[in-house]
Amino acid sequence: MTYHLITFGCQMNYSDSERIDSVFENMNIKSAEKNKADILIFNLCSVRQRAVDKVWGMLKNIKTQKHRKHPSASLGTGKSTENTKIKKIIIILTGCILPADKDKLKDKVDLILDIKNLVSWPNIIRDYFFTNYKLRITNYEPFKSYFSITPKHSSPFTAYIPIMTGCDNFCSYCAVPYTRGKEYSRPAEEILKEVNKLCVQGYREIILLGQNVNSYQSFMSFPPPIVVEGRLQRESPGTSNCLFAGIPACAVMTKDDVVNFPILLKLIDSIPGNYWLSFLTSHPKDMSEELINCFKECKHLMPYLHLPLQSGSDKTLKAMNRKYTAEQYVKLIHKIRKRFVNNSYIAISTDIIVGFPGETKKDFEATAALMKKIKFDMAYLAEYSPRPGTAAAKLKDNVSSAEKIKRKNYLNEILKKTALENNQKLVGQTISILAESIKDNFAFGRTNMMKNVRIKLDTKSTESIKTQKILIGQFVKIKIIKAGPWGLEGEMVKK
Ligand code: SAH
Ligand code: SF4
Ligand code: F3S
């Protein structure tokens, strides 16, 4: 019995897929290529119409070959059972799916499973196979956080750790509050244990995930755990070791105290190890002073921030229900950048939507002007796509597709210039990068500002190639010798 998992969407969905992989592996169902698998799983993203259309197209194609011959199955038993011959491909749909998209796709799939019920998937799938009748149950067992499942990380050195899911912000264009539901924050202790384990295993990069990490909030019973020699331990209150992220816990903690996002960051940062720490995604309205200070206080925190702007027009921002003005955003960026002095630098990336309903040329020009002013290091530009059920879907999608593309290309040109300008300032610096891969005599990696780097390798001897391969997943010292808009070139610095 085999499965194949296809993931769409953001890092949050990719992170969920690592937990899906782990569940299937525990059921003794192995991963296989798409056209050989018995079970096909689509982990969907409803944020834009394009991904939904793509899945629709793929499902139509699969339907024609749905009754392939299959070998005997062994479902979770570890043994082959001759009489459980499966004769068709089972298609499972999960992820962030809007109700309207669910309706559209439901007849093309066998099961629609809620990712939040991942803990129950083995039972649901077994029942499906053995009773052979169609069920589409979402609440099979009482909810148990699927985050407690240990994921099968796809990288041995970079780990994405969800700290929360859902969103209560209801930006008018966005599907997320309707697909992932209300905000839920994982208990701090569970997160700390997971990060600590990865640090002990030698992970080099920890990226915390959530739709709006800034609104993370959980409670931790007193006294909080601390890390002693790489292990989480509890200390009695009042002892000198009773530290909460370096602060004497007794001074700041009361029974069942609140852990907000900056405190969580400080707690994680207190875990020893040689690693980088980062987080995605922040909402400008929730970037508190306390959080901004973390960039100076937390030694592992990468000088990188993804802060979605969406639009530079106050009128559009209001219609988007973003709850900040262009001026407030600019002030915030200044405040953050002011923390980085003496040649230190923070890279800032953003998300922008072009062609939101009612976006006039003037509104668009305000976005373009703001992009020029802020000089982003990276921007993810999207053409507005109406999502059924959201507030903006009631507004007329009155910017033509051709105009949206034109606007997007225009912003891309601005980004190209500012990113190049920013990258050129880094030329000549000697820095550490995280080496990620080697291909065709080049090593590829990333700086702690999330900038891609390419390094020409010394390939004179087979011995040097061997030693260079060992560098993957490690921090490597390089000198930046050249800059482009989308990345840097560097050379290895001899020790
Ligand atoms: N939670 C994050 C990301 C949400 S979705 C945040 O608050 O920023 C990721 C990005 O997709 C958004 O930032 C937005 O730029 C884009 N997006 C969301 N809905 C969209 C829509 N209906 N059309 C086009 N882009 C959209
Ligand atoms: Fe969507 Fe807004 Fe929530 Fe981000 S903050 S997930 S854009 S509703
Ligand atoms: Fe898409 Fe869900 Fe992420 S809707 S953008 S995969 S949170």
Topology at a glance:
Elements: E1 2-7, H1 11-26, E2 30-31, E3 39-45, H2 49-63, E4 72-73, E5 81-85, E6 90-96, H3 99-105, E7 111-112, H4 121-131, E8 158-162, E9 164-165, H5 176-179, E10 184-185, H6 188-200, E11 205-209, E12 217-220, E13 225-228, E14 231-234, E15 243-244, E16 247-248, H7 249-252, E17 257-260, H8 261-269, E18 276-280, H9 289-297, E19 304-306, H10 314-319, H11 326-338, E20 347-354, H12 361-374, E21 378-383, H13 401-424, E22 430-439, E23 442-446, E24 452-456, H14 462-469, E25 475-483, E26 488-492
Parallel strand pairs: 1-2, 1-3, 3-6, 6-7, 8-11, 11-18, 19-20, 20-21, 24-26
Antiparallel strand pairs: 4-5, 9-10, 12-17, 13-14, 15-16, 22-23, 22-25, 23-24, 25-26
Helix pairs in contact: 8-9, 12-13
This protein binds S-adenosyl-L-homocysteine, iron/sulfur cluster and FE3-S4 cluster (F3S).
Question: What does this protein look like?
Answer:
- This protein is of the alpha/beta class and 495 residues long.
- It has 4 domains: 2-145, Rossmann fold (3-Layer(aba) Sandwich); 155-277, Transcription Regulator spoIIAA; 303-424, Transcription Regulator spoIIAA (2-Layer Sandwich); 430-492, Beta Barrel (OB fold (Dihydrolipoamide Acetyltransferase, E2P)), CATH 2.40.50.140.
- The chain is 31% helix and 24% strand.
- It is built from 14 helices and 26 strands.
- α8 (261-269) packs parallel to α9 (289-297).
- The protein is globular.
- The chain starts with a strand and ends with a strand.
- Residues 69-86 and 135-142 have low confidence and may be disordered.
- Bound molecules: S-adenosyl-L-homocysteine, iron/sulfur cluster and FE3-S4 cluster.
- Residues 424-494 form the TRAM domain.
- InterPro entries: Elp3/MiaA/NifB-like_rSAM (IPR006638), Methylthiotransferase (IPR005839), Methylthiotransferase_CS (IPR020612), Methylthiotransferase_N (IPR013848), Methylthiotransferase_N_sf (IPR038135), rSAM (IPR007197), rSAM_horseshoe (IPR023404), rSAM_sf (IPR058240).
- Residues 1-130 form the MTTase N-terminal domain.
